[in-house]
Specification:
- This protein has 3 domains: about 100 residues, Sandwich (Immunoglobulin-like); about 90 residues, Immunoglobulins (Immunoglobulin-like); about 130 residues, no CATH class.
- A 6-stranded mixed beta sheet has the order 1-9-8-3-4-5, with no helix packed on it. Strands 19-18-29-26-25 form a 5-stranded antiparallel beta sheet, with no helix packed on it.
- The chain is mainly beta and about 350 residues long.
- The longest helix is centred in the first third of the chain and has 14 residues.
- Helices cover about 5% and strands about 50% of the residues.
- The chain contains 1 helix and 29 strands.
- The chain is rod-shaped, with a radius of gyration of 41 Å.
Length: about 350
């Protein structure tokens, strides 16, 4: 538009006889303001004075008329509009949504009239932003999280973040068409963290945060021959030990087995339970005590020692839809006690 005006000026100068001036009035393209705030419509460029009249109008309503030395303000804009008679900028106060639209300045001179328009955009400030999950308790692998971001004001954009990184759509992260709701699921442990949504418009923004906690099923149970049951669970798991299916009464992470007598042979089971999800998983091993004969040179002879043969039970159990995998630790070591008893060390890894 300004380029066309430049061409027009050149053509006008070429067509002039005597003194000819190419003059114009320019305004910013638009203004963005908030409800109850004010705006100052300030011309970027004005023609040379004197002016016969300066008129500011909104649609068909003439807000201000400046003529000679007098300023007239429409009654509907009393105490809201004013004119700077030097810069001819119009200030409009106590803005509301119906003030949005196109404004026009007209400058009348003896030889011609010039005008320019600009647009006022009015927005309600964003406030009371909330971020909630309507699904409640989240259990890993089973639950779906439904995050909803809401707020008051003129909402033009919604931005989502997780742990201060942009949250992007994926197979398990689905955004609603209006971008105000995010469906995540089935939730995983990695989905735990701080989520935030930011609602914004050109004059304001506000952010809400939500801490998501995924109640994970116990993971990585490690059952070692020294009878330690180690889990990773959110929250911390509780333990129960069984021997050949009978509760031993031991509820700690460790269970001491005296590998001396034949009656120690049997199935040892560690059961870990998550008291929030009510799910549990177990790791088991079979222990067999045998007689062997060892000679004085360290080979098998007439002595009786306890040799432990570890039978790894590869178990896949389903507990309320929960699949448990047991994998034997690759490393095995043989320890020798002072009385010649040998114990084979092993490790279970249980994922669930």
């Amino acid at each position: 538009l300004m380029a066309l005006r430049g061409v027009y000026c050149i053509l006008a100068l070429q067509a002039c006889v005597g003194v000819c001036f190419c003059e114009e009035v320019l305004l910013p393209k638009s203004y963005n303001e908030a409800v109850n705030d004010k705006v100052l419509f300030t011309p970027i460029k004005l023609p040379s004075q004197p002016f016969d009249e300066v008129i500011w109008a909104f649609g068909l309503t003439r807000i201000i008329l400046f003529s000679g030395t007098q300023t007239f303000i429409d009654s509907s804009y009393t105490n809201r509009a004013s004119l700077n008679t030097t810069s001819f900028a119009m200030e409009l106060r106590n803005l509301n949504m119906i003030d949005a639209g196109e404004y026009k300045i007209t400058i009348k001179k003896k030889e011609n009239s010039l005008f320019e328009t600009t647009t006022l955009n009015v927005f309600e400030k964003i406030s009371q932003v909330t971020l909630n999950d309507s699904t409640g308790l989240l259990i890993e692998g089973r639950s779906f999280s439904n995050l909803t971001c809401e707020g008051s004001g003129t909402i033009l954009s919604t931005e989502w973040m997780k742990d201060y990184q942009i949250l992007s759509p994926s197979n398990s992260v689905i955004f609603s068409p209006d971008n105000k709701t995010v469906l995540i699921g089935p939730v995983r442990r990695s989905d735990s963290g701080e989520y935030q949504c930011t609602l914004s418009n050109p004059v304001s923004s506000d952010t809400a945060k939500f801490i998501m906690t995924v109640n994970c099923k116990c993971k990585n149970i490690q059952l070692v021959l020294s009878s330690f049951c180690i889990t990773e669970s959110i929250p911390t798991a509780s333990y129960t030990w069984e021997f050949n299916g009978t509760n031993t009464g031991v509820t700690t992470v460790s269970f001491i087995v005296e590998l001396v007598h034949f009656e120690n042979s049997g199935k040892y089971t560690c059961i870990a339970q998550n008291h929030v999800t009510k799910l549990n998983a177990s790791g088991s091993h079979a222990l067999v005590v045998k007689e062997k004969v060892s000679g004085g040179d360290g080979t098998l002879s007439a002595g009786i020692i306890a040799a432990i043969v570890i039978g790894v039970l590869l178990v896949v159990t389903a507990v309320a839809g929960l699949v448990v995998y047991f994998t034997k630790f690759k490393g095995r070591q043989v320890y020798s006690t002072g009385n010649g008893k040998h114990v084979s060390n092993f490790l279970y890894l249980v994922s669930f």
